[in-house]
Design brief:
2 copies of one chain form a homodimer. By secondary structure, chain A is of the alpha/beta class. Chain A has helices at 13-31, 39-46, 50-57, 72-82, 98-105, 107-111, 142-148, 160-172, 199-212; strands at 36-37, 70-71, 89-94, 114-120, 130-131, 134-137, 153-156, 177-180, 193-196. The longest helix of chain A is centred in the N-terminal third of the chain and has 19 residues, at 13-31. Chain A is globular and about 60 Å long. The two termini of chain A are 34 Å apart. Chain A binds a DNA duplex (24 and 24 nucleotides) through helix 3.
DNA sequence: TAGATTGTTAATCGATTAACAATC
DNA sequence: TAGATTGTTAATCGATTAACAATC
């Protein structure tokens, strides 16, 4: 499995954004029991060039066959593995407000091996209630929980005021990945990975595009 | 107000992503009653180069003063206007499940002039209930509503199966902007703008980063 | 084999950064 | 005026695309 690039230069962000697209489209093809696909067919379907798809894949190895294309099931498995979907993840969720409830109830993640194991919230009215099969615990139980249970990903759906504090706590407890929904740029040390879903920024981009739709690239 | 670029080449995506950052940080500075800020101070705070900030702003005009920097309140107002926040928007929300409820209850948008005026859902159990001050209506009232009320933005929080169909309906009703939370790539005609929040893609990126944290750029 | 499509290199394109004249 | 910082051009960097030898 020759890899185009050592870990000197790294994987460009655009590649990381496109991998989930490939994954999802290949999942769809596999469901339809399509056997093979070429980079130009993939490009056609996803609005990308064939060259870009081949180039993206070549960061991770050679998965196709000259003159044939890619076997759908094989490429799907390879990309699943590249995305880290060949294992299960333990999640905890901090903040059981509306957004936290929505995420806890969302089944798409669970189906792919991301399971919420514990939920924390500071509201005494929520304490002891069940949400998606988890009992809601007060946040001062968080450190104890982290000391006794393996946690891969912390999902932060708290108000912005406490998000950084919660973030620091879970990092202190050894969590290495944070999925943040609070509207604040969290500071994390080297070695902790972070994905941010920022609803307001997205809405502001939409508003911008409405005002400037004539002069937007792409 | 000399603009660096006609609408020949357009505004790069990166600029659109950064404008909300500038907006939010300037709002914070204004709240703290800071009077002036330089591009290097902004860059420092946001993890960007001073040159990039000046370059981004120059797409829209010249807002600074040589030898001084930028007046916080003035730049804040200018960026607000660039983002289209100098007016109000009428929103409708289709899909009153967990995610729809979370968004309807989220006050951050309303404070900036984005107001949800109507909510639609196909579930007969929800019909007639109130959510954030709106009565939940069946989706077959949607076309009639669009014919009689101005709608700037449709928020789609339906299941993926019906999202494209709902999208087509609102576009047929004249809506020019769609904020999509359903896990599907919506097809929209020229002239309709689209912002997509894709929770699963974000989680897959996080998973990827966990597996490859050693070889990621930036 | 002939036809097709990969993987990869070279060429192109676009975005970021550095540098600096303009100027408050 | 001297010092500082902008707005913009030129240089650099990185990502995308085109081209093609390798090969199934």
């Amino acid at each position: 499995m020759p890899v185009r690039d050592g870990n000197k230069t790294g994987i460009p962000k655009g590649v990381i954004n496109r991998l989930p697209l490939y994954y999802r489209y290949l999942a769809e093809l596999a469901r339809q029991e399509v056997e093979k696909v070429s980079s130009s067919e993939l490009g056609e379907a996803l609005g990308l060039t064939a060259a870009q798809i081949r180039s993206d894949l070549s960061y991770f190895g050679s998965f196709g066959q000259h003159g044939y294309g890619y076997r759908v099931d094989e490429l799907y498995n390879q990309i699943s593995s590249i995305l880290g979907l060949d294992r299960a993840y333990n999640l905890i969720l901090i903040g059981a407000g509306n957004l936290g409830k929505a995420i806890a109830s969302y089944q798409n993640f669970r189906n792919r091996g991301f399971e919420i194991k514990a939920i924390f919230d500071n509201d005494p009215l929520l304490e002891g209630k069940y949400l998606s099969g988890c009992i809601i615990q007060p946040i001062d139980k968080l450190t104890e929980y982290l000391a006794n249970n393996p946690v891969d990903i912390a999902v932060i759906t708290t108000p912005r005021e406490v998000a950084q504090d919660v973030c620091n706590q879970v990092i202190a407890g050894g969590v290495k990945a944070i999925w943040n929904f609070a509207p604040v740029r969290l500071q994390v040390p080297e070695g902790v990975v972070l994905e941010h879903i920022h609803l307001t920024n997205s809405l502001l981009r939409l508003s911008f595009k409405m005002k400037h739709s004539d002069k937007i690239k792409d």
